[in-house]
Specification:
It is a single chain. The protein has 82 residues and is an all-alpha fold. The protein has one domain. It has 3 helices and no strands. The radius of gyration is 19 Å and the shape is elongated.
C-alpha cells in the first residue's frame, strides 16, 4: 500500500513539474524577471529604511506597500528569522 501511494505521489509530482515548466513562455519569463527585479528594489528600499534608523514596523509597512501585487504573503516573497 505504501509503495502504491508513493508511486502515485511521484507520478503526480512529475506531471505537475512537467506542466509547470511548459507553462512559461517568453512573455511569462519576462514578467517573472520584472517581478523579481521589483521585489529586489523593494527589499533594497527596506534595507535602506532600516539603515536610516527608522523603526522596523515602519519599514515593514513600506515594504508591504511596495510589494503589493508582486509576491505572495505580506513579506514580499521572502521571510527570514530574527
Amino acid at each position: 500500500m505504501k509503495k502504491l501511494l508513493l508511486a502515485g505521489v511521484s507520478i503526480a509530482l512529475c506531471a505537475t513539474l512537467s506542466i509547470a515548466s511548459e507553462a512559461h513562455g517568453d512573455k511569462e519569463k519576462k514578467e517573472d524577471i520584472a517581478r523579481h527585479r521589483a521585489m529586489a528594489t523593494a527589499h533594497e528600499a527596506a534595507a535602506k529604511c532600516l539603515d536610516s534608523g527608522k523603526k522596523e514596523d515602519v519599514c515593514s509597512k513600506e515594504l508591504q506597500a511596495a510589494c503589493k501585487g508582486l509576491a505572495i504573503g505580506k513579506f514580499c516573497g521572502m521571510k527570514h528569522a530574527h
